[in-house]
Amino acid sequence: MKVVIAIDSLKGSLSSIEAGMAAKEGILKAKPDAQVIVKPLADGGEGTVDALIEGLKGEWIDITVTGPMGTPVSCYYGYLKESSTAIMDMASAAGITLVPDTEKNPLSATTYGVGEMIKDAMERGCRNFIIGIGGSATNDGGIGMLKALGYEFYDKDGADTGEGAQALEKVESVNTKNRHPLIPACNFRIACDVNNPLCGENGATYIYGPQKGVTGDLKETLDNGMANFAKATAAALGQDHSAAAGAGAAGGLGFAFLSYIGAELTPGIKLILDVVSLEDELKDADIAITGEGRLDHQTAMGKAPVGVARLAKKYGAKVIAFAGTITEGASVCNDAGIDAFFPIVRGVTTLVDAMKKENAQKNMAAAAEQVFRLL
Length: 375
Known about the structure:
The chain is built from 14 helices and 13 strands. The strands form three sheets. The chain has a six-stranded mixed β-sheet, with helices on both faces. Strands 2-1-11-12-13 form a five-stranded parallel β-sheet, sandwiched between helices. It has helices spanning 16-30, 48-55, 91-94, 112-124, 143-148, 204-208, 216-237, 249-261, 268-275, 278-282, 304-314, 332-335, 351-355, 357-374; strands at 2-5, 35-38, 59-66, 72-80, 85-89, 128-132, 152-154, 173-175, 187-191, 264-266, 287-295, 318-326, 340-343. The protein is α/β, with parallel strands linked by helices. The model has no long low-confidence stretch (mean pLDDT 94). Helix 1 (16-30) packs parallel to helix 14 and helix 7 packs parallel to helix 8 (249-261). The protein is 37% helix and 19% strand.
């Protein structure tokens, strides 16, 4: 019997790999001769970098970069030396959680630190990049990131435009000659789960701007700035990605990656499943194990466990899910490819006790053991 495990993290309790190893322990108690493979799982959002570094045995690289409001912030990215791969979360350098509500200012918030992270990784030897771009504090079209990578943006008088959303309406010309020389040698894959274009009522400013401090009277001005930036970019590069799905992600950072870096935008779960080579392991698997902290109707709407289930069903494997909590609406997960799901909590307890790492590990192992004794 071959079993492939890919469980999302139980946030605040177990990492993806810890949950997977606990399930493996229980399976082997019931079926000692089973072949059990544990893979990391995430959806491209919060926790993805940690899951992949731990699961793929990468290295944590600590770095100080320019934060979204221009002050230094400490962050990190993952380095997989064997494959020359960097795994990054843009939010660690330019995320909305780094800015108190009282200090949000889309006119000056910058993605410069994201470019500094990329530059550090390139000069360390990375040539492949996996970058999640959710949760930004910025609405700068990615101009900050691009400036950190050597691109130059000038106004009508030939002066530097500065950074932040205020810079976009000033851009008249673009100089690409001084871009970092290693960029063409690199491959960028971006985890992006939104389809918004750069501009318009469904674009970056109108849809996501308000949570970053964009007030009603600023929307039109900043959206016009985005349109001007797209126009100047098209004139300089001979291509226009402003209407592309995902161009409006992370305050227009998706547009910058598409236009200037030649990146590929991919749904987060699809990208992560590919990175961990899950499909290869599922081709001859009998059973796939997945799960997350809370299994509910939203799980069926494309979250990580359902991504695993769909891939497993492609090869005829049975799919079992374990979760810390299961809600009444979780039955829709059965229709989404999960054959059966089980809560791991074994008795009346407080949430605090249930989430303690040692308790969650024991509960996960015990639940997996009993299910596999039946199998």
